[in-house]
Amino acid sequence: MTGPGTGRPHDPAELARLARKELSPEHYDFFAGGAGEETALRENEDAFGRLALLPRVLRGGADRDTRVGVLGREWPAPLFVSPTAFHRLAHPDGELATARAAAATGIPLVTSMAATTAAADVVAAARATDQEAVVWFQLYLQPEHEVTAALVHRAERAGCSALVVTVDSPVFGTRHRDLRNGFHDLPPGLAAENMRDLPGAAAGSTRDIAMWPAGWDDLWRLRELTDLPLVLKGVLHPEDARVAVEQGVDALLVSNHGGRQLDAAPASVEALPAVAEAVAGRVPVLMDGGVRRGTDIALALALGARAVGVGRPVLWALAAGGEDGVREVLTALREDFGRVLALCGGHRPRDLTADQVVARGFPRRPGTGERTW
Reduced to 3 states, what is the DSSP secondary structure of residue 53? Predict the structure, then answer.
């Protein structure tokens, strides 16, 4: 497959191959790698491959609309850019290029707390392209409440319209590629810019991002800090989903952190149906992990997601083609989903339903045990 009008490929494997040629080995491994034996990393993609879509036919009507509503905003497609760190390792323009490309395609961006460009500059770049661009800020709760508060207020001043609170990281996952490569810090000239000039740090310096076992009470304290919607990222267990909704979280993001934390975790799409069932439509359920093509988006929506995030393909496109590469891969994903929706007999994303998802082979429907033959 090639990007629209360019001849550049957007096939995920080919993009990764091209990116590998552009990146130093340790930086490629940082982006590509996962925790432990990288089982969860592989399973995120492989789990989609074990599922098939049963198309519906003779539903008539040529109209098709891929728009979805999320937290009071209408998105042109059920797709967003998931938070990933250190984009300037992939390209000199880093997060600025990603923000401009996402805004140009109408795709919301979740900018990372570990971005190599400050959130205010990311939002400014997106809004210079589209004044209505949606940018959310990904947040790790920090042990010092005043540091969390400073980050939240910066995100508010920058114009971010939601906080994506990552809750699956009480400690760092063991990433053998980084250990093997000795990759422990950014090269000179790059830093996690959102961590600069925070309480407890010397003027002009940055703090490390702490991974620690936050609790529900820390989430309550965050709620008291801001009126921004809170999206809880890293939820896999349905009971956590139920508690989160009861505690007033505005949306959930089913994610195993791209396979970078607990290697024994299930694929995100495998955890999705139980979380969606527990939520029962009370808040939007989002998902990321392993999304590479339009069929993956359709499968996730059929299993209960409102929209899905894409991470590594954006990094590969950024490394291989800069801003143009990111714009093309996002456009290609959006168009591919539209085709899949039509081929499944749907006119709107909500037309995709769980009875259209089957396991390959002589299958039983996921989660039901019901035979489909």
Answer: strand
194 vs 85: CA distance, rounded Å: 11
Ramachandran class of 183: left when φ > 0, alpha when ψ lies in -120 to 50, beta otherwise: beta
Q: Is 287 helix (H, G, I), strand (E, B) or coil?
A: strand
Whether 74 contacts 68, CB under 8 Å = yes
Strand partners, 110: 136
8-state DSSP, 186 = P
Q: Which of 82, 198, 193 is nearest to 148 (CA)?
A: 198
Nearest-angstrom CA–CA distance, 314 and 324: 11
User: Does residue 51 contact residue 360 with C-beta atoms inside 8 Å?
Assistant: yes
> What is the residue-level pLDDT of the chain in tens, covering all 373 positions?
444 434 455 688 999 999 999 999 999 999 999 999 999 999 999 999 999 999 999 998 889 999 999 999 999 999 999 999 999 999 999 999 999 999 999 999 999 999 999 999 999 999 999 999 999 999 999 999 999 999 999 999 999 999 999 999 999 999 999 999 999 999 999 999 999 999 999 999 999 999 999 999 999 999 999 999 999 999 999 999 999 999 999 999 999 999 999 999 999 999 999 999 999 999 999 999 999 999 999 999 999 999 999 999 999 999 999 999 999 999 999 999 999 999 999 999 999 999 999 999 875 666 565 665 4
pTM, 2 dp? 0.95
Strand partners, 251: 231
Q: Own/partner pairs for 215-224, CB < 8 Å, 24+ apart? A: 216/243, 216/247, 218/141, 218/145, 219/141, 219/165, 219/167, 219/247, 219/249, 220/247, 221/145, 221/148, 222/139, 222/141, 222/148, 222/152, 222/163, 222/165, 223/248
Residue 338: Cβ within 10 Å count: 18
Tokens of 189: 């000239």
In the set 27, 87, 91, 257, the catalytic residue is: 257
Residue 257 among the catalytic residues: yes
The C-alpha atoms of residue 250 and residue 242 are separated, in whole angstroms, by 12
Question: Is 222 exposed, middle or buried, given 0-12, 13-18 or 19+ CB atoms closer than 10 A?
Answer: buried
Local structure of residue 346 (DSSP, 8 states): -
Side-chain half-sphere exposure of 65, counting CA atoms within 13 A: 9
